[in-house]
Amino acid sequence: MTTPEKALVVLSGGQDSTTCLFWAIQRFGKDNVEALTFDYGQRHRVELDCASKIARLAGVRQTVLPIDTFAAIGGNALTDDSIAPEEGARDDDALPNTFVPGRNLVFLTFAAAFGYTRGARHIVTGVAQTDYSGYPDCRENTLQALQLAIRLGMESRVELHAPLMFMSKAETVALAQQTGAMEALAWSHTCYNGEVPPCGHCASCILRARGFAEAGVVDPLVARTGKAG
Ligand code: ZN
User: pLDDT at position 229, please?
Assistant: First the structure.
């Protein structure tokens, strides 16, 4: 009998990482999946409550790791109270102020380190290249380079999985349905303004709403909380 392969899912409490948690459970089995959540000083503390609730609903063990360095660095709308998230799409090539530089690089490196100690070589992340924001640390080439760096630097066989990498938002909704994530999605949190019910007008709310509309599915979060805006 071979030892089962274990997976660690970086769970933010958002739509994408929640879907990835259920993808991992389907692929690796619930007993072989754990969730890892980072408390990086995000302004919207509700995210952390959502992530814990979702891990409980999924029936997997969750660990919350503190990293307060991003808040100390500041300079972006997700960790700095003095900066409001930009609304709508930008017409230039600049990154939106919701970009937290280095966040995914650090998260995935810490996840690999955590997985190393727990015998979990599969690290699952909800990043997607198709994400409208175009965050460079969500692209496949960044993940490939980081995977190589971690393999070399930890002498490990780590595998970084990004199942949503090339999916449209509508396709991620279909994946959520297929993996049984819909009930948990009712407790997910994506709004850049930190509002529950979701504000309906920030870039993240608009993207989420468009995905559910294209999939022809009611967002279970909206069904649960009612829609603002
Ligand atoms: Zn919003």
Answer: 42
